[in-house]
Each structure stands twice: as C-alpha cells, then as structure tokens.
C-alpha cells in the first residue's frame, strides 16, 4: 500500500463525505470549540453526559479538511456510551497512534476503527488535523473554552 | 534581449535534481521562497570558509575585504532598485522587518492620534499587523481600500480614501495570494497629489518585475532576499534620505553610533544608523550574488518566460472541472491560486506532495483576502522562470487524481 493510500483510506474518505453525528446538541452538558490556525479548521463539539459521566450523545459541527472531519466523525461514533475513564484511555492511545508511538499491529489497544489514522504519523503537518477534535474534547470535559492546535 | 536556454538554466539549481517521494521535484511554491542558484550558495560558503571577518571597524586584511564585499552588495542593491544613493539602502532581516521599521520609527515619531494609514484589502499580514500595532499605540486609524471580484484594487475607492488625515499609504506591488500586479506608479502619484508618503511592499515584485524607486518616487520600498533567489534572513529597506534622516534609530548597539559616552551618545550617519549590531554579512553578500544572477538571466527574459508559463498554466488548470481560480486580474503575475470542488486545500496539498509536487495551501498570510472571496484557504501554485510546462502538466494530472480520490 502506498503512503498516500495510507492517509486517504476509503474509511476516512467515506466519513468525510458522510460525517456521523454532524449536528448540534441543544442544551449540552459540555461543549467546546476547536481551531487549527494552520488549516483554518473550525470545530464545535457538544455532548450530553449522564450522572456517571457516560456519553449519552456527542456531536460536532464545523468545517475543515477530510482528515479533521473524518476524525471527528469517527471519534464521536466511538465515544457513544463510553465512560470518562475509557475516553481518557482512548485519547492517550489515539495520541500515541498518530505520533507513531503505538503500532496497532503489535501493541495492545482498544482503538477499533480509529486505527485507520495509523498512517498519519508520516505526515507531521497533518497530525494536528486528526487530533484537533480530541483536544477539543478534552477541553470540553475539562470545561475550558477553546482548543487550538498551536 | 539575450535568448536563453531555459532547460540548461535548471542546472543552476541543484535541488531540481532531487527526488521527492521518488518523483522529480516540481517546485511550485516560489511565492513562499524561491530556489537558490548554486552561485549564491557557493558565494556564501566562500565567505564562511575563506573570508570570515567582521566588517566596518577592522584594520586587518580580511575585515577590509569583508567590508568591501558587504558595501559592494549595497551598491548592487542600489542599482537593482534604481535608488540614487547607497545611504538610502538599509539591510534588514527581510520585508517584514523593513515594514516594521517604518511603522515603529517613522510611524511612532511622525503620526499622531486620528491620523490615517491607508492599505489595500490584498495586503500580506506583514503589511497589516505592524500598522494595527501602531494604531493601537498612537490612536491612528487603519483604512482599507477594497478590491473587486478579480482581485484588482478598485482605484476610485482607493482615491476616495485619500484624505487630509491620511499620513501614509502602504501597498503591495504584487499580491502574494492573488498574483495581482498593482498600478504602483498611479498609486504613488495619487497619494503624492495629497502629499502623502508611500511605502511599497516589494516582497513578491522584486523577482518578477523591474524596480525603479527613483522613477516611481515612492518614499519607502521593502523587499526580501529569499524571494529573489537569495538567502533567507536578509532584506532591504529603501527610504528617501531626508525621511531616514528625520527618523529615530530602531535599535541601539554597535555600528549605529558615532560616539558613545555615559552622558551622551551620537548616532552614526545613514545607512548605519539603522544597522545596529553585526549584520547578516554572508546573507548580504549572497543577496548581491543573487542580483548578479538575475542580471545574468535578464529581467526581460524572466518576465517573458513567466508570462508564457502563466498563460499555459491558466489554460491547463481551466481544463480541470470544478477548479476555480482565485485572482484573475488583467495584470497578473505567475501565481495560480485556486480551489477545487469542496476539497480542502490541505488535502490537495498532501496528495500533490506524494508525487513530488510542492504547492502552498492555506491562507498565505492573507486571511482578509480569503474572507473577501469566501474561502477558508486556497491551493497556490506560484511559478518562477525555471519551472517548465511539464511541471504544470504534472500538477494538472495530479489534480485529476485528487478529484478521483474524493469522488
């Protein structure tokens, strides 16, 4: 598989074209905005967490490149029903994945479909595109306002 | 006009023999920085390996030789931009620093609350932000002349904004994100009719058109070495002598003084008043070499070649369905900014990169231009005389591939 195919895999292209959870949640329990000044990517995450901190619903809106949109789509799909502890683990594993520290074929992980982003560590300038939604998520959970990749 | 073999000229740029991701490099990012001919690199290496010395105060052989080479480069710059005197040529770190010197030295000492600075909607951030900083400090007002849908300055609107409050006009000669060539002489004449001084940002223009600050009669002219086949980290501020004399120095230190005591320091004469500290000696010498290189090709030849490439490029890109050029001014330089369907320019850039095609994607430090055209970013192919039709063919073919991937 060529390097390019690794970056623009079918699943990424499909989630870019038909993003899941691409909507606004009214009266969310948590929300945050993310901005990547390099690309001009903008993202708003909104979510409902239950009393135990489980995701009842999570959605995103915004504009950006294929990688950032697909990443937000796959992240929100993955997080439905997950607990905060599971989310924190996924964040750390995803971060390790896109920076090339976690090799999905060898290392244990719970990333599931998110391994589709494994090729991105070879594109340092694009890692930010894939991780913007995750940083925004962490800010939302920590009740901070705006995430930026800079 | 000399006739030149442009395929042979490519040998002057060793980087063009590199393979990027297994493909020959198609370097289409010249508006960001141009490639450097071997002559420039060799000349700088020669200074560092065989001629190292500090300049201006040494009595030893190498210092005198270095001073000579440095000041010789100043003379080359003077001729290159058509200035009257070498005292009007100040070496800086680049266009950005040159504009900031005018904002901070001229602006802070000459402008007061309520004064207006007039720029255009197509300016680079480096010709916006220094004025905003000045406005914040001094209570001045930044006015922006609008551009039309092709990316041309609306000259009547520009003229209407010239008022008794306008104390400076600062305009790019050539837009880096649209390719628009501004009517520099007309702009200067209009401003001078109101006795308003003019700064011309020549960062893009310096390598694409003949500069003549005396004929244009602008008060200030700023440009960078690295966008005209020279090194990074060196640039020039030209200023009319009487204005430079009135302006306070920007930085204090060595070389910019006539005498120093703890009671009183007197400043050096022009241009040294604005050149505190050891300058980028190798860079200045390299810039002089780049000017020699441009002369050896000939600006007429450069323009002729680039015009032919631009015409070919516009035709080629127009054959890609869903491609929209941003910046279609009648008088336009070899910069092709575009969007393709609703594909984000960064995705385009990454896919092209995999075939060794280097373009720029993003807002090109001109966010107001992006807002004006309602796009978050564009993809930009910017050409130089060493580019080929084959480079453009590869770009076009790769754009069809991008469309395939995002189908």
The fraction of residues in strands of chain A falls at 15-25%
The largest inter-chain interface, given as chain pair and residues per side, is:
A-B, 18 and 16 residues
- SS element count, helices of chain B: 14
Distance between the termini of chain A: 32 Å
Helix content bin of chain B = 25-40%
Order of strands in the sheet with most strands of chain A: 3-2-1-4
Low-confidence stretches of chain B: none
Q: Within the largest sheet of chain B, what's the order of strands? A: 4-10-9-8-7-5-6
CATH-defined fold name of chain A? Sufe protein. Chain: A
The largest pleated sheet of chain A is described as:
4 strands, mixed
Radius of gyration of chain A: 14 Å
- The SS-based structural class of chain B is alpha/beta
CATH level 3 topology of the largest domain in chain B: Aspartate Aminotransferase, domain 2
Q: What helical percentage do the residues of chain A reach? A: 40-55%
Shape of chain A, please? globular
Note the beta-strand portion of chain B: 15-25%
Q: Assign an overall shape of chain B.
A: globular
- Low-confidence regions of chain A: none
Task: Give the CATH architecture of chain A.
Answer: Alpha-Beta Complex
CATH class descriptor of the largest domain in chain B = Alpha Beta
Task: Calculate the mean pLDDT score of chain B and round it.
Answer: 96
